Amino acid sequence: MSNRLHAAAFIALPGIWACNSGARPTIEFSKLSEVVIGPNPRSISVADIDEDGCLDFAVAVGSAPIAAVVAGRCGDGLGPITELDLVAWPDRVALGDFDGDGAVDLVVAPGDFDNLEWFRNEAGLLGPSSTASPTAVNLNAMHSADIDEDGRDDIVGYDLGVPGAWTWIQSMVEGPFGASQRVETDDGEFREVAAADVDGDGWLDLTGITWSTGGVAVARASGPGVFGEALIANVDLLLTGHTLLDIDGDGDLEIAAGGTQGLDLMRQGPRTLVLLDPEDSSVHELFRQELDAWGFESGDLDGDGFDDLLVAGWDGDVSLMQSLGDGTFTEAEQVAEASLAADIVVAQLDGRGPLDFALVDNHRGTMSLYLGEYR
Fold this sequence. Notes:
globular
């Protein structure tokens, strides 16, 4: 199959999914580069680590005690790969300025180690590692953001040792992190946790999905790092991924989540995408659509002012659904070929044109860059 795949299909979908007649930007993605990372890469994070103006990548190599740091070369592909030794096989990676010095550091959540590993950035180089948290944490979902607005990125995730709650860990001046704090969710094991300003009030809220109970959760902030108990919407799916996006340009974020009907991976029902609107007192389901959806990433990929969806399917391939600005989407159109896209990041990788994306292929052990172009 060609590495260049178009994404501009406009058809009406069932239910409220109806295509309008206005012209949408036509974009296509071409594979710029692909490198072998290691066995079973699980997650990827992007930021300018070496301070050369090009975005770099950190990847959790899931079947080896290694985090791979891949140098980005803007529109010229990928540079050298640096392997960082870990105490255990990694589950998640997160990049951010955790000590407030203006440089991008790396935090790794090893799956079988009751703490985080912190690699401090010194003159564009990461390492050596140190234990990040003063208290034991075992995060199987992790996200970095400046939750308390102190100028340093914090960590939020799901701690396997703290059921029914999310854990957020505040970065400290003396570095890198202080004691963990709980955000009550009253639900099961979370597969993903994210931080974003859902309601446009200027404070970062928390969202997540549960693996076993089919719950989509939102904890709203009443101030920097101050959260109420999470609101839960049960969508009766075995949820595997979610993302936040503004599909109608109103400044409030919606939640796209996906999984299978029937809470059993071995006996899967129809694969389903569900879109939800987090309201003040509830999480309201807007619609659901049968779709091969395992994981998601979002961003205004076509530059029309509305967030689009990149959908990683159970068959491995990645498809684009362009937002039409009225709460509807185009039909999913394949834009990348993979065996199993375990994680995707969207960013401006070449400094021009529409947004681009990178993915890690869990089965092939590779990382690939795809550049977007208008056509």
